[in-house]
Amino acid sequence: MLPQFAKLLCFAAMLASLAAAPLTAATLHRGLGPEPDSLHIHQAQGLAAVNLLRDIREGLVTFDVSGEPVPGQAESWQVLDNGKRYRFTLRADARWSNGDPVTADDFVRAWQRAVTPATAATTAGLLKDVRHAEEILGGRAEPGALGIRAVGPGIVEVELEQAAPWILEILAHPVSFPLHSEGTDDPRIAPVNGPFLLQEWTPRASIHLVRNEQYYGAATVGMDAVDYHPIEEPATELALYRAGELHITETIPAGRFAWLRENLPNELRVNPYLGSFWLGLNFNHPLLGQSPELRRALALAINREILVETVLGAGELVGWGVVPPGIAGYQPATLPEDSMSQEAREAEARRLYRQSGAGEPDPLLLELRYNTSGVHRRVAVAVASMWKQVLGVNTELVNEEWKVFVNNRRLGIVTQVFRGGWIADYADPSSFLDLFSSGSNLNNTFYRNARFDGLLDSAKASAGAARMELLREAEAQLLQDMPVIPLYYYVSRHLVNPAVTGYEDNVRDVHLSRYLELELGEP
Fold first, then answer.
1. Is residue 102 assigned to a domain?
2. 389 lies in a domain?
3. What residues of the chain score a pLDDT lower than 70?
4. Terminal Cα-to-Cα distance of the chain (whole angstroms)
5. Torsion sign across C-alpha atoms 447, 403, 278, 378
6. Which of 150, 184, 187, 514 could make an S-S bridge to 198, C-beta 3.0–4.6 Å?
7. For residue 260, what is the DSSP state?
8. How many domains does the chain fold into?
9. Measured between alpha carbons, how far is 142 from 117 in angstroms, rounded to an integer?
10. CA atoms of 366 and 395, how far apart (whole Å)
């Protein structure tokens, strides 16, 4: 945790940056959340990085104002071979920011690099449906075997292992963006192909974007510039918004939902969202990994209603599963105890805890790790208190800056219990469940279960209701083994200045800056 003096310095730097670039009709100021973990398309993992990258880069597909997939660098596409092959025709006016044309080879180059094991691309698993991707990621095939090829400079052909209707959403994710022939994707020096250019990055203060005049849709981009402001504390973000220093916040502070709903009803935007929050359990830990009784006891001792209504108080929904509600055709699995009273859950938690033997002869001490955030700290403190009260478990809270936290979670050497969760990369249960497959490089719990993996494999070869039922069985198996403790489902929540136009709520919570404008005469 930063010392108080350091926090004040960061806050002062942020205010100075905002003062240097006052709100104008030509510049949109947006809260970003934490500092981006990376702005390299193959290393970015956090939501802040993904949101920003979608403003400065673009894939074959992008999102419209309602968060639905639409043509991006590709002006059109054909679906062939019963959904196993796609042929994309690039826009004739698709250009890099240096004026070079965007070509099919730029996509082939980028995708092959993404799946090359040496690249260690954190989200390369999203390309798993592309032919031979999994073999390449596993070191069993060469990158050149990947199912993407250039059919001339303006045609990209993609071959899939099996039909995957969600592939269009994946093509709007940074991991599938093109790479200029210069070979670097550092947006501070490399050409980009999105609506905006990264002009200046002041750490912990602002990321200044300006309109990319080479972008094919530059004439329709309403803003001259966009300033993103990395702000980890929602209370700080709210203060800046109320002071007129931000047009859009990334979130709202815990416990202020009712006040904002009463005092800023026309500016508070809350909407269902495809995201889940959970606590991850490291299966490599000798006690957590070997004792299902302990894992379930820890899960049942947590009062989710108190978390949602009192600790968070921002419209979240109590969560008893990994996959959130709202995905068409899917009925999520949930923990069977969701229908019990909290009193009955706690009694069962104490019974399972005694059965596990974890508290004998000395009280159990667990470490709960989370990234810097007032919300995450509030949740961690509440969970620790519930574990102590119900089970007698002592909890040491460990707060880490985002990049350090992500690295430790990925390595799994020091982690025990850690803050986790996922926002859907595409509207399908597999976006959540694939995280826990044995071969996933995002499996931070190090969970391994052959039946779970088999159900996912069977689902890949199925379609329709049969596929959804296999995925539901997989989720039920996951909840039985409990590598994570589900706590709640996200909702999107932002404050949006009334002067902002073109902002539409959607379940993906995607709001590209290219569609946003400010009414003239408004701050």
1. yes
2. yes
3. 1-25, 520-523
4. 35
5. positive
6. 187
7. H
8. 2
9. 10
10. 5
